[in-house]
TrEMBL record:
It catalyses: dTDP-beta-L-rhamnose + L-arginyl-[protein] = N(omega)-(alpha-L-rhamnosyl)-L-arginyl-[protein] + dTDP + H(+). This is Protein-arginine rhamnosyltransferase. It comes from Polynucleobacter tropicus. Protein-arginine rhamnosyltransferase that catalyzes the transfer of a single rhamnose to elongation factor P (EF-P) on 'Lys-32', a modification required for EF-P-dependent rescue of polyproline stalled ribosomes. One of its GO terms (molecular function) is translation elongation factor activity. NCBIfam families: efp_Arg_rhamno (TIGR03837). Keywords: Elongation factor, Glycosyltransferase, Protein biosynthesis, Transferase. It comes from the Bacteria. Belongs to the glycosyltransferase 104 family.
């Protein structure tokens, strides 16, 4: 089938990451014909830059306006249209669907959630005055939800340890042999500086890998430079592609992630993590985090449960870091169970079955 995915980028990386991973899953795993129309091609191309050329060449990446402005080569009517995260389709593109001899299915692809109420709305019709069939599709962790994106399934961290991506070799050469590794990718509102200062009070060598932009956020340079504790080493990594970032997550002992795509990849890496969920004014993010923790901690004992909740709510590391080994074992078990539940192919495969 032919798929059109519409992606409007809100927070720079997460929206583009999900749309790109979905496109390549549909194309490479399920041999679907996929186009992405995006309002921020530079960001999307950065995310996709490390993908194997044989995969990338089968996905048609287009600017947003190409969906309706190319009069000489009109866009062929797709079988399925994805409104990623509920973005509105361009009116002129939608007008073209009205007159198409065969109408497509429109999928309103919602944000990932573990909240129980999504099961009541997942797959339900959204009647439209124009008569084109439209449905809600909710990604989720439960068997009855829309699934998560699992492509590519990450290899074991030990297996991939030697395959250092070229863009990361310089940074990796500076890592200390016996130090723990923590990667950091969070929103500006996180108490990161205070968190790192507390981390430095622990009697343990720790290498902290800062993703693009975090060094400036911490004021590592200039008169207000961050004074590093002796056991802490901060290293900035360059902006890397999606696959290269997946690799980083697999090689760290602990990861701080944000948004949706890195949140899922942190779980598939089988490592402990903090999910810095996107803050919302009505505090809806707290409900979403609590719903995820209800699922994530279902098999955890009380001591580990309290430690993980503390970490996820930005309690200082000295309060819970001693539970990291137990958390690591638990995270590996969670990864195993997650992949087992997504054994039907996850989000891409469930979308395909739903629309076929």
């Amino acid at each position: 089938m032919r798929w059109d995915i519409f992606c409007q980028i809100v927070d720079n990386y997460g929206d583009a990451g999900v749309c790109w991973r979905l496109a390549r899953s549909l194309s490479s795993l399920h041999q679907q014909e996929v186009r992405i129309f995006c309002d921020d091609l530079p960001t999307l191309n950065l995310i996709a830059s490390g993908t194997d050329a044989s995969v990338k060449e089968h996905i048609d990446i287009q600017p947003w306006e190409a969906s309706f402005s190319n009069a000489r080569h009109p866009v062929q009517t797709p079988n399925v249209v994805i409104e990623a995260f509920g973005c509105d389709l361009p009116e002129r593109y939608l007008a073209g669907l009205f007159i198409a001899p065969v109408k497509p299915i429109i999928i309103n692809l919602e944000y990932l959630s573990a909240e129980p109420w999504i099961l009541d709305f997942h797959g339900k019709a959204s009647p439209q005055s124009h008569g084109i069939s439209k449905y809600f599709f909710f990604p989720g962790f439960q068997n009855e939800a829309g699934g998560i994106l699992i492509d590519p399934v990450p290899s074991d961290g030990e297996v991939s340890k030697a395959n250092i991506p070229t863009a990361l070799k310089e940074t990796w050469s500076k890592l200390r042999a016996n130090a723990k590794r923590i990667s950091v990718f969070c929103y500006p509102g996180a108490p990161l500086r205070k968190w790192l200062e507390n981390l430095g009070s622990l009697n343990e060598d720790i290498d902290v890998l800062l993703t693009h932009g975090h060094a400036e956020q911490l004021s590592l340079y200039g008169q207000q430079a961050f004074q590093l504790p002796s056991n802490l080493q901060l290293l900035s990594i360059p902006f890397v592609s999606q696959d290269e970032y997946d690799w980083v997550l697999s090689q760290c002992d602990f990861n701080i992630v944000r948004g949706e795509d890195s949140f899922v990849r942190a779980q598939l890496a089988g490592k402990p993590f903090i999910w810095h969920i996107y803050p919302q004014e009505d505090r809806a993010h707290e409900v979403k985090l609590a719903a995820f923790l209800d699922l994530y901690l279902e098999e955890a004992d009380q001591e580990l449960r309290l430690a993980i909740i503390s970490a996820m709510t930005w309690t200082m590391p000295s309060e819970w870091f001693g539970m990291l080994n137990q958390w690591s074992i638990y995270a590996k078990d969670w990864r195993t169970q997650l992949l087992k539940k997504q054994g039907d192919g996850g989000l891409a495969a469930r979308l395909l079955r739903f629309t076929s």
